[in-house]
Amino acid sequence: MHVYPTKALLTSLLHYFALDLGQADADWLSKPAKTSHAEIVRNNKGTDLFMDDFAMDDLLRLYSQYNLLDKIRRKGYDAHFEIDVSDPFVHKISIINHSLPASEFILKAFLRRKIYQLADFKSYQRLRRESPPIQSLLHKTTSKELVHNLEQLYGSLSFSINTIEWLCLQDPAQSLTYQRPQLPGQKHPGLGLSHEILTITIQMSLKQGRDAVCALPDHFHNAILFRKKGFLYLNPAYQAIFDSLCDNLQSEIDCHGLSYVSWAVKYGYVKCRDGSSFSIVASIAYKVN
Ligand SMILES: *[C@@H]1O[C@H](CO)[C@@H](O)[C@H](O)[C@H]1NC(C)=O
Question: Hey, what's the signal peptide range on this chain (predicted)?
């Protein structure tokens, strides 16, 4: 399997044009975040509202609207819905069956609310650090000038985003079989409800007036799933590469299945033109508002 971009191109894209997602909220190089932003980012201590906005009933209503709990119950589970708002930054939803051990959950969704500003863009951070070889990429300008221009253009910009820190939906009573082969990262077969869970996550963000939902897909098949739902890579260059990767691999997917291709990407059997193995680990976003 061959796709066109070279490792060098991917590496420079990764270094210069990516958003740092899920990292510590402090960026030591940037000016301190405005107070209002800091307050928005941090969920209020002591609240029992999920992400400061949803009572248990609101969430249950949303989950019932998409028949998620019914569909899980029809698989023989006594689905129990729990929220954990003890961490001020990341709130957690779990669906479990009480008789099963904690590791054999049905759903876990970890969500973080975060305000992204210019300082969160790696390209801006690299420019400010003037880390080599960035100056060698700039011919007619200096990194200082670029930093200045970026600050003029985007200095006041901020995106309010719900990030999916971790999302796992599985059928814990079932084992992986030849008919339902294991995908990278799976311990049990999936439930076929990823579409619904992403719809619910987007609906939550819409109700909260967020700008976008972000995630960092771990594996090729996850990225495909997000793509089907309308997520795009934040960096348009990545999106172009991913689209051509999907086109290139479609016949392999049709012939051998998505699991086979996802493992092939994971283990480096999908090669760039220069023979190096191919991977994209970058943030993907769904524009809500
Ligand atoms: C779920 O838990 C109930 C008891 O609460 C049990 O009867 C049932 O067998 C469990 N379902 C599965 C699939 O393990």
Answer: 1-24
